Amino acid sequence: MTESGAQLFSRLEARHNVKDIEPRLFPKDGGPEDGEMVELYGTEGTGKTELLYHLLCRCVLPKEAGGLEVDVVFVDTDYGLDMLRLVSILDSRLNTAQSGSSSSAGSDETVLRSCLSRLLVIHCSSSAQLLLTLHFLENSLSSRPALALLLIDSISAFYWVDRCEGGGSIAKQEERLSKCAELLGRLLRDYRLSVCATCHAIRRSNDGQASSDSDRSYLCRAWQRLVTHRLLLSREATSMKQGSKEQRSQQVFTVLCSSSSSSSSSKIKSYRSSLFCVTDGGVEFI
């Protein structure tokens, strides 16, 4: 059964907005609008996946706990998704919300299960599987108006494999990622879905730190054109935090956000810098 234009408009209007997913990350105008792409970029160990968990939890948590209460798809290309860690963060956020509220919204287990029911996890072991996954999402989005965010960890996982398989041809090396970017572009445009994806920086200096040009994107142009919000993550020097009995070290991360709205004809960007640390209960902004 084909749907009418009015039905299509009604369905797309029903998709939730995640602009308020994390006001402390994005410039004053807010986070990603419907149909915009966020790239989390940085070297290994700069908190990209933890920040992705934070955004995921913000989406699936109930509104009473400060969440958006929307569905999320998590595409795991690194096979690094730690469900125990994710459940621990969700449980910590729910306990914090419950301790500050006079009313109870149900048992902890029931609410936690409700949060996890809003999450669909898909594992991909090649760029070909990622391409098929995006095709699957395109075919199923019309029946899932509650789905508001697609997370990919990471979009650069198959970069070196694709380069090897592509031989000496740049077009062949970038072919699959370009096709993935084309599909993602349709999801952003036609279904007003928001997408967040991590990307590993690959350029380092001899001392193991990010080199001066490590913040330059190396992925194909088709991908770069999709990105409207870029979060550049790095590690700060370890600070000392005064504990109850003794001082303990605390790793601090910096995230610099550069944003340009996809709906704006002008290319003027806005910026915001934030600091956060990672605790047992997840990301905490400083």
TrEMBL record:
<dbReference type="Pfam" id="PF08423">
    <property type="entry name" value="Rad51"/>
</dbReference>
<dbReference type="GO" id="GO:0005657">
    <property type="term" value="C:replication fork"/>
</dbReference>
<dbReference type="InterPro" id="IPR020588">
    <property type="entry name" value="RecA_ATP-bd"/>
</dbReference>
<dbReference type="GO" id="GO:0005813">
    <property type="term" value="C:centrosome"/>
</dbReference>
<dbReference type="GO" id="GO:0042148">
    <property type="term" value="P:DNA strand invasion"/>
</dbReference>
<dbReference type="GO" id="GO:0033063">
    <property type="term" value="C:Rad51B-Rad51C-Rad51D-XRCC2 complex"/>
</dbReference>
<feature type="domain" description="RecA family profile 1">
    <location>
        <begin position="10"/>
        <end position="201"/>
    </location>
</feature>
<dbReference type="GO" id="GO:0000400">
    <property type="term" value="F:four-way junction DNA binding"/>
</dbReference>
<dbReference type="InterPro" id="IPR030547">
    <property type="entry name" value="XRCC2"/>
</dbReference>
<dbReference type="GO" id="GO:0000724">
    <property type="term" value="P:double-strand break repair via homologous recombination"/>
</dbReference>
<dbReference type="InterPro" id="IPR027417">
    <property type="entry name" value="P-loop_NTPase"/>
</dbReference>
<dbReference type="InterPro" id="IPR013632">
    <property type="entry name" value="Rad51_C"/>
</dbReference>
<dbReference type="GO" id="GO:0140664">
    <property type="term" value="F:ATP-dependent DNA damage sensor activity"/>
</dbReference>
<dbReference type="GO" id="GO:0005524">
    <property type="term" value="F:ATP binding"/>
</dbReference>
<protein>
    <submittedName>
        <fullName>DNA repair protein XRCC2</fullName>
    </submittedName>
</protein>
